[in-house]
Amino acid sequence: MRTVIFDLDGTLADTSADLIAAANACFRGLGHGDLLSPVADAHTAFRGGRAMLRLGFERLGHGGEAEIAEQYPVLLDYYGEHIDVHTRLYDGAAEAVEALRAAGYALGICTNKPEDLADRLLMRLGVRDLFGAMIGARTVGVSKPDPKPYVAAVEGAGGTVARSFLVGDTETDRATARAAGVPCALVTFGPDGDRVAALEPEALLGHYGDLADVTRELIG
What we know:
Blueprint: E1 3-6, E2 13-14, H1 16-29, H2 42-45, H3 49-60, H4 65-81, E3 88-89, H5 93-102, E4 106-114, H6 115-125, E5 133-137, H7 148-156, E6 164-168, H8 171-180, E7 184-187, E8 203-205, H9 211-219
Parallel strand pairs: 1-4, 1-6, 4-5, 6-7, 7-8
Antiparallel strand pairs: 2-3
Helix pairs in contact: 1-3, 1-4, 3-4
Pathway: Organic acid metabolism; glycolate biosynthesis; glycolate from 2-phosphoglycolate: step 1/1
Protein name: phosphoglycolate phosphatase
Family: Belongs to the HAD-like hydrolase superfamily. CbbY/CbbZ/Gph/YieH family.
């Protein structure tokens, strides 16, 4: 079965403001105030919790892996409780995904967000039932760009890797697709914008209204 696998953060939904808020809650708890900007640091937000904590500690001129490891569970707890304060699906995403499902495509999620948080967010956004598989960070023991999570997402959705592709927004997604031997479409409405073209994906997606055309182009 033809299958489309989606990244979540920065691809289906703009989660940056809630992610940044969770990191800033850690720094406030340490007495430093808000160190990260939901606008200027959105790029880092999509690299994950540890990347945000690392950036904040760098701005303080101290802190290391031990401090990041200590604060990471605090970040996850705060984020889990405030997961959809600012987060919204990108324009047209739900409608485009629903159209693919109605057309007979298998659909899944492959994200480096912890699986329980990804499930919770998609349920809050009202689109969890659209996806036949949910593979998060460490669900299969490794994370993207290792191809195993992608393969698990395709198979979990009932699809075939050879007739699939990945929709993402970062170099990690590009590398994952390459490792799995499948095409990749990168969105240009994330924080990296048109700069993702330099990663040479098989397709660029400027709006979810174009997803059906991109899908036909890549896997028929």
